[in-house]
Amino acid sequence: MTDDNGFYSTLTTTLKELTKQVSELKAQKNKVVYTNKEMMELLDASSATLKKWRDEGELSYSLIGATYYYSKSDIEDFLRLHHYDAYACSL
Question: Which residue ranges make up each domain of the chain?
Answer without folding.
Answer: 1-30, 32-91
